[in-house]
Amino acid sequence: MRLLFPLFPALAVTLFATLVAALLPLLGRAEDPAPLPASPSAPVATSASPDQLPRPASINEPPPLTLDPRIRVMKIHEVRNDETYNPHRNEALEFEKSYWNYGAITAAQKEAVRGQIYVISWRNDGPPDRFSARFEYRQTKTRDQIKVQTLDNPAVNGNVRSIFKVTGAEYRQDGPVVSWRFTVWRGNRIVGEEKSFIW
Q: How many domains does the chain fold into?
C-alpha cells in the first residue's frame, strides 16, 4: 500500500498535463459569432430578425446590464407537453396538458402543440413604459446555437405574463430546451433577468 500512494499524485499531474495539452489548441481558435437565427413564429411570441434585436456587437462584449429593482421576474413555469411526459395520475398535471392541447383534433394539430411552453410572470413596479421580453434558449441538437423569441409590450404597468412556445417541428427537429435566459429590455438595456442554472 505504501508503494502505491506516491504514484497517485504523479498520475494526476500527468493526466492534467495531457488534458491541458489537448484543450490548448481548441481555446486558441476564435470564431466570429454567428447571427442569431430567427425562431419559427409561435402563436404568442414572435421572432424578430437578428438586426432588429437589441444585442451586443460582438460575443466578447456583454450586453448593457443595468438591472432595475422595480422590474422583478416572479415566476417561471415550464410546461412539458410531450407524449413521453407522464403526469403519474396527477389530475392537475393531466388537466394542464389538456388545457394546452385544447382544440387540437387532427394528428397535425396535435403535433403542432407538442413541445415545451414557458409561462413567465414578471412585474413593473415603476411608471408605465415600453419593454421587450426576450427569451433566449439552446436545444439538445443545436448545442451552442442560441435561438431567440421576443414579445413587445408597449405600456407595461404591474403584472405581465409572457408565454414562449418551443413546439411543433422545431421541437421535433432540435429536441428539448436544455438552457434558457429570460431578459426584460428597456430600449437597448437589460433591466430584468432570470436564467437557468446551466446558462
A: 1
> Residue 17 corresponds to which cell in the numbers above?
498535463
Residue 47 DSSP SS3: coil
Contact call for residues 155 and 126 (beta carbons, < 8 A): no
**How far separated are the first and last CA of the chain, in Å rounded?**
44
Strand partners, 153: 131
Q: 0.90 cut: is pTM over it?
A: no
Give the three cell numbers for residue 72: 422583478
- Judge whether 137 lies within some domain: yes
Identify residue 29 by its one-letter amino acid code.
Answer: R
**pLDDT, tens digit only, all 199 positions of the chain:** 444 445 455 555 565 666 656 665 655 544 444 444 444 444 455 454 444 444 444 445 667 788 999 999 999 999 998 888 777 888 888 888 889 989 999 999 999 999 999 999 999 999 999 999 999 999 999 988 999 999 999 989 999 999 999 999 999 999 999 999 999 999 999 999 999 998 8
In a domain, 35, yes or no: no
Residues of the domain holding 101: 50-195
CATH at residue 183: 2.60.40
Q: Which of 84, 159, 78 is nearest to 118 (CA)?
A: 78
Residue 127 lies in a domain: yes
Residue type for position 123: R
Instruction: Determine contact, residues 164/181, Cβ cutoff 8 Å.
Output: no
Structural domain includes residue 7? no
